[in-house]
Amino acid sequence: MRTMWKGSIQFGLVYIPIKLYTATENKDIRLRMLHKDCMAPINYTRTCSKCGQAIENDAIVKGYEYAPGQFVPISEEELSSLQDETDKHVEIINFVKLSEIDPIYYEKSYFIGPDSGNGLRAFSLLRQAIQDSDKIAIANIIIRSKQHLAAIRSFENGMLLETLYYPDEVRSIKEVPGIGDLITENEPKEMTIANQLIEQLTTEFKPDHYKDDYRLKMEKLIEDKVAGMPVEKKKGRAAQPNVVDLLSALEASVKETKPKPRRKTATKRKKTV
């Protein structure tokens, strides 16, 4: 597993050397753009939108568009000057309950690993203290020149750091079209059946029970085409039930998801002598 960040956790006056490792990975299957006649990848070049010339990397600078068509350049040295020595520290600010953070704030997850043998004791102490407190640490961290709010929590036999969006990065749900037209008083019978449907579909969350069906189909399609096998034709979708109203749809859903009774196995009678 490749290290993507190296620094330390500042826990009061204690500094714990750590490394961060990306905890998740994107397994989407990426398709290349090909020339239909040659079946070869299409190259893309960086060109200037004004003069049309192809631009080499050493002629590219960063800039901010402060007005339409008006840019101010910002050099790498100027960006570096905004950082200080504390930028390699994960500064713990305070501790909160996990239930107080809405999932909308979570951005990306990283495994936290110890950086050296000398820091193992402090690392283990912090992990155990967080686990025993039943709380998570809120901290600041700078990754790739961007400051993030982060949550640190115990995870199995280690720790996990999850970057969070700042409040002004989360849009207001009031901006969603039509959200203000929702009905506040729902029909009691519809609510009863809806709650019954939720109860029937409620189960323990087990991640291994879920899979990316589309990706699995894509992998099979690619394997078949590489092997020169004919592509299976898509089966037609089952006809959708003709439901005329919400209540009927809910009742049909409850009936469809109702657990089927188990068949009783016949027990053999013992012969008496």
Automatic annotation (TrEMBL):
Residue ranges of every copy of the Ku domain listed in the record: 52-181
Checking Gene3D superfamilies in the record gives:
2.40.290.10
Task: Spell out the SUPFAM superfamilies in the cross-references.
Answer: SPOC domain-like
Q: A Gene Ontology molecular-function term?
A: double-stranded DNA binding
- Sequence ranges of Basic residues compositional bias: 260-273
Oligomeric state and interaction partners are given as:
Homodimer. Interacts with LigD.
- Keywords tagged on the record: DNA damage, DNA recombination, DNA repair, DNA-binding
Protein's recorded name: Non-homologous end joining protein Ku
Q: Where is this region: Disordered?
A: 251-273
Give the family this protein belongs to, as stated in its UniProt record.
Belongs to the prokaryotic Ku family.
Q: Which InterPro entries match?
A: DNA_bd_Ku70/Ku80, Prok_Ku, SPOC-like_C_dom_sf
Described function: With LigD forms a non-homologous end joining (NHEJ) DNA repair enzyme, which repairs dsDNA breaks with reduced fidelity. Binds linear dsDNA with 5'- and 3'- overhangs but not closed circular dsDNA nor ssDNA. Recruits and stimulates the ligase activity of LigD.
Q: What Gene Ontology biological process does one annotation of this record name?
A: double-strand break repair via nonhomologous end joining
